[in-house]
Amino acid sequence: MKSLYKIAILSVSVLFSIACSEKEKPTIITVKNVLEMERTTETVELSKAILKMEDLSTIGIKNTETNQLEIIQKVDNDGDGTLDMILFQPKMAANSESKFEIVKVGEGENPTAPELCYSRFVPERTDDYTWENNKVAFRVYGPTAQKMIEDKVPGGTLSSGVDAWLKRVEYPIIDKWYKEELSGVSSYHKDTGEGLDDFHVGASRGVGGIAAKVDTTFYYSKNYTKWRTITTGPIRTSFYLEYEDWDANGKTIKESRVISLDLGQNLSKFNITLEGVDDIYAGLTLHEKDGEVSGKKDKGWVSYWQPHGDSELGTAIIASINTFIDFQKYDVPTKDLSNAYAHLKVKNNTVTYYAGFGWKKSGQFNSKQDWENYLDAFSEQINHPLEVTVTP
Fold first, then answer.
1. What are phi and psi of 18, to 5 degrees?
2. What is the pLDDT of residues 144-159, one digit of tens each?
3. Which domain of life is it from (predicted)?
């Protein structure tokens, strides 16, 4: 009996030891960069499903080499009050691999960083929706601005094109510019050292607005009708826009989109949900037609580099090579309707592309070649994303 008792105790001890061992086994995130280039502004998304965790509120991410906690951002994507995802931007050397451990942290223990990725609805200026990071800023126009045009009220805007705000400082400017413009202190149409809004959109596609093409005619939606801010923070801002159904020569098109902009990137990500079309065209306004359209089908981008005020400006559309069909220059006499277009596939009612700009005066790009080098590198990154594995 004594031997059986000892065996039973030993068995319980072994089982307890195994249970403790399994319980204490850390969750390790392995990030791999397969490219021969450093990558420092790409965002890793860790969902609850990937992490196999229901509660992300007390989670931190520790670099196993430096033993330091990473800057992270937690996101509630669907607005139900529960965190769905953790974001972070690992600093990856060329052709390298890094490991990170999921750790439990107390309130206030995760490191903080300035919230440079910001967006908001702007009711004080009709109903713009505006977004920015430390490199660029943009805006789109809402239903009030559209109705003002339809009712012939001055100050409205009828356009589903995307406006570019040319900033040349890293800190946020949206709230400051609107406040100064609307109070009469100064105008964001003049550069007082931070940049300015002198990018004309009109009926054009601006920087990344879409069109449907039937035969030789392009058709557009009108202004957005609904909005929802998803997140702002140190790593990403994202938001949802919905559009009234629109017509393309008898075809009814349904459209909504989630737009995001990550820290350090000049291009916003457009994830558009569509019904009624199998392909779309994302466009770049040609303004005075005094610039140069260029593109690389094998890299999945089209660009327009142009003189702009006392400087120069590059705009671009870029998509994965599996989405990018081709590009074209569309040049017509009608004001604002000339655009450079990226022709993109719609798969399973969605299309994803990136659109943005580089302003020479900001000091980020000194030439057309610098801008195109950036697009080539961006193409490599979206076509060879960071590889992420989670163990156990």
1. -65, -45
2. 999 999 999 999 999 9
3. Bacteria
